[in-house]
Sequence to fold (403 residues):
Amino acid sequence: MTLSEELSWRGFVNQTTFGDIKALDKPLTFYWGVDPSSDSMTIGNLALAMMVRHFIDHGHKAILLVGGATGMIGDPDGKNEERDLKSLEEIQKNKDGIAAQYRRIFAGQDFEIVDNYDWFKGLGYLDFLREVGKHFSMTQLLDREFVQSRIGKDGKGISYAEFSYSLIQGYDFLHLFRKKGATLQVAGADQWGNSIAGVELIRKLEGKTAHIWTGPLVINTSTGMKFGKTEGGAVWIDPNKTSVFDFYQFWLNVDDAGAPQYLKFYTLLSQEEIKHLEQETKQSPKNRAAQKKLAYEVTKIVHGKAQADAAKQATEQLNGADTAINNDMIPILSVGQSDELNIIKVLVDAKLATGQSDAKRLVSQGGVRFKDLKITDQFEPIRGEGLLQVGKRRFLRIQRKSD
Fold:
């Protein structure tokens, strides 16, 4: 299967400057980048990373960028107000985190990591205006949708720094074209406007043609909203932000309708394997074959086989046990033998609820169970030890220690 065929059946086709996507079937040098707005990618970034993986697997040369320079400004696209500037120390920490995740997700593959701060730190302001700013009209920049939303009626305004963001990203493409031979930028659907800036610069300054390939925004089929947001917030790649167990549980609990598409986006399973899982799930939905395979494969890619095996084992224990569960994947609350626990405080302290109001809502709506019994009274103390469950996928083991 060619790359264009692979991307098409998996659903990784969005906008592109290619007149014929079969042009992707000849190896190119491309780049893809993540700005260090955090020290971890989310599963939204992961979808694009998996798309990039297919480019690499089909012989394309990959340049993976960490945006040390663009991270100093912050991408304004999609934001309705000015971002707070991050300190240089925070940006460095975030860059290190993103680079480490590149190495983990693309382990064993051929790629190069670059940081755009390396070529911006020596570039003078006047030089940038002459080489880059001179080639963009104000009309072109003002026509950007996010600029219009910020300066229009009820808009909160936009700084010159954020206004110039697309020029900075455009220069990245120009630099990588000149120094690394990159002729393609791979990006998310929301980066089309920023990416075009680079294509224009290369055309105007080098007289050459460069291209853009964007992947689609992944939508949660059950909610119609952006995929990867939960009641606890975003789903992160970093296990310190989203535990391996919670990560596994997230995928295990996706809806039947969405599971086949998520398998295409987030795993390397073949077309035949995914079709088989889709049919099996339709025939026996209670077995959740697609979700189980999805959870295992994605966790293996992100956290490694050992962690995926442990998360799978913990889940199997949950399905057939209560106080007997013994797996380090499931967090533990260790308390005294005679302690009487308030469920609201437990939920908040264990970060199973965002606050007291959220905890009370979870209890009132029947979303909290202890030892497989629904908790209906927020004032009834928790006694004994066992498994506390919140919703479908969040768990806490309460254990008693000797006083």
In short: The longest strand covers residues 394-401.
